[in-house]
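Encode chain A's predicted structure.
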Amino acid sequence: MSTTVEEALLTRRSCRAFRPDPVRRAQVERLLALAARSASNSDCRPWQVHVLTGAAKRALSADLLCAHDEGRRAAAEFAYQPGAREWPEPFRSRRRRFGEGLYRDALGIDPDDTTAASATTAATTASSACRSA
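Encoded structure for chain A:
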């Protein structure tokens, strides 16, 4: 499949909900090979990819959802981008408008309703339930 840059830009979209259908290993390997060739700011993205399936994936998903539900966040090794309130204009306003449009227009959530937004984040991964250690 050959796509021009223009076609790729005009047809791209962000997806915030995912189907439960399994993805074939060959597809994952092909996507990772293509992603390795994607643009990067000074080649500074930390590429470490781990692909999980089956019980290992379910266990990791449950642990991540549990951490999310409990408000636990991993400490970042370094800042990938400024904090939400640290963006200079006009970028801060653009990000705010994007977020408002995503939550209000696409998801029907008031942009200031952080509880509903957080629940939506968890719901895109799986049903929320902490598993026993």
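Residues 54-69 form the longest helix (16 residues).
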